[in-house]
Amino acid sequence: MFEGKEKQDELQEQASELALAKAALETSVKYLARDLGEYNIRVNSIVPGSIATERQIKQWLTPEYKKLIIDSQCLKRV
């Protein structure tokens, strides 16, 4: 149980870092769009859902974690 708690804490820490980076990027796009709009320049961003890389599949993608990811996404797929 303790090992699972450590893994959960590690995943939550990584999620916090990802959320911070995502928020910074979204804010940057918003202000760039505002500032460059007067020059008829559009600024867009694409925010994909979870991407199951080889490393993630090997280390973290348990059935429970996969369900958690899918439940939190709009398209309900990994």
What this model shows, in words?
By secondary structure, the protein is an all-alpha fold. It has helices at 2-37, 54-59, 63-71. 0% of the residues are buried.
Helix-strand layout with pairing:
Blueprint: H1 2-37, H2 54-59, H3 63-71
Q: How would you sum up the global shape?
A: elongated
Question: What is the strand tally?
Answer: 0
Helix content: 55-70%
- Spell the H/E element sequence: HHH
- In the predicted model, the low-confidence regions spanning at least 5 consecutive residues are none
- Percentage of residues in strands: under 5%
Q: Quote the distance from N terminus to C terminus.
A: 27 Å
Mean pLDDT score: 81
Largest sheet descriptor = none
Radius of gyration, in angstroms, nearest whole number? 17 Å
Count, helices: 3
Write a compact overview of the structure shown.
With 78 residues, this protein is mainly α. It contains three helices and no strands.
Give descriptors for this structure.
78 residues; 3 helices; mainly alpha; single chain; elongated
